[in-house]
Design a protein that fits this description.
Order of helices and strands: HHHHHHHHH
Low-confidence stretches: 93-121, 286-296
Shape: globular
Strand content: under 5%
Number of helices: 9
Distance between the termini: 27 Å
Largest sheet: none
Structural class: mainly alpha
Length: 296
């Protein structure tokens, strides 16, 4: 499990670094960004519902489903207030001159949610709030990955599929987060070397979160199931909030390309469910043996 977790973390770091460099390599159109966001949003929504919450119930026990629901709500509300405080989950910027944004008839870019700001409105230090919020968000992602892998590793036969769904949701989402930070820094006049340093720091947040969780839970052998179950339920709430923060604005403000965006969403959900179906049958069971019974 630890070797696979290390591979996952390396791939996530690479994806995050690539996302930060993306604006200097290719031009991102508005349509392409929205389709990607819908795809990843659907995947994260599916992972939260099909993977994290069921595994949380397995770890806590069927009689503790209320506890799992409570922790899921805590995760959702926590991420909601992080989004409200730091305003970091805005991927579709027209801040960097290298971004190509396609404007469509009927698409109101002047709505109250302020999804698009001009370069003149960008302060030299605007990226700090975005970085802080995304860094906390990424630490939580790392903990979610660690919790998923710990839970699935407890079920013999999971093999190389351990944590695959959570990993895919994170690795596809990190480039979008990284590009938000580096775009703001570029618009604020920061040098390429400064952007690379901040991007590298951000990329290491997910492995840090995963390592903290795995090493911490190993010290709690008597309460391991409870910790993993609560962490999975909390992470499910986080994934739901992040997914819906991408998907709900699309439904309200993007009347164009509805077929493409809806198809991308459904593909993401289907991918999440497909990974769920590949898991061993016994990993979905809600009956647990005495060796993993809870001490409540």
């Amino acid at each position: 499990m630890y070797a696979l977790l290390a591979v996952y973390c390396l791939l996530i770091v690479g994806a995050s670094l690539a996302g930060g460099w993306l604006p200097s390599l290719i031009k991102l159109t508005h349509t392409r960004m929205q389709i990607l966001m819908s795809l990843v949003g659907g995947l994260m929504l599916g992972i939260g519902i099909f993977h994290m919450f069921p595994h949380a119930v397995v770890e806590l026990g069927p009689s503790q489903i209320d506890r799992a629901a409570w922790w899921m709500m805590c995760g959702l509300v926590t991420m909601f207030f992080l989004l409200r405080t730091f305003h970091f989950h805005q991927h579709d910027h027209d801040l960097d001159p290298q971004f190509t944004v396609e404007l469509h008839p009927g698409h109101d870019h002047d709505h109250d949610h302020d999804h698009h700001r001009g370069v003149a409105d960008v302060h030299h230090l605007s990226w700090i709030g975005v970085f802080t919020g995304l860094a906390i968000h990424t630490l939580i992602d790392g903990m979610a990955l660690g919790a998923s892998m710990q839970s699935e590793a407890r079920h013999a036969g999971a093999g190389w599929l351990i944590g695959l769904g959570t990993f895919l949701a994170i690795v596809l989402h990190k480039p979008l987060d990284a590009v938000s930070i580096t775009s703001l820094m570029a618009a604020g006049g920061w040098t390429k070397s400064a952007r690379m340093s901040v991007n590298l720091t951000f990329a290491l947040m997910c492995p840090l979160g995963a390592g903290m969780f795995v090493l911490g839970v190993d010290q709690l052998s008597t309460a391991e199931s409870v910790v993993i179950g609560c962490a999975l339920a909390f992470s499910a709430g986080v994934f739901l909030c992040i997914a819906l923060s991408d998907l709900l604005p699309e439904m309200e403000f993007h009347s164009h390309n509805r077929l493409q965006l809806s198809s991308a969403l459904l593909f993401g959900l289907a991918l999440a469910y497909g990974i769920h179906c590949l898991e061993p049958d016994h990993s979905h069971q809600h009956e647990r043996g005495e060796s993993t019974s809870l001490r409540l």
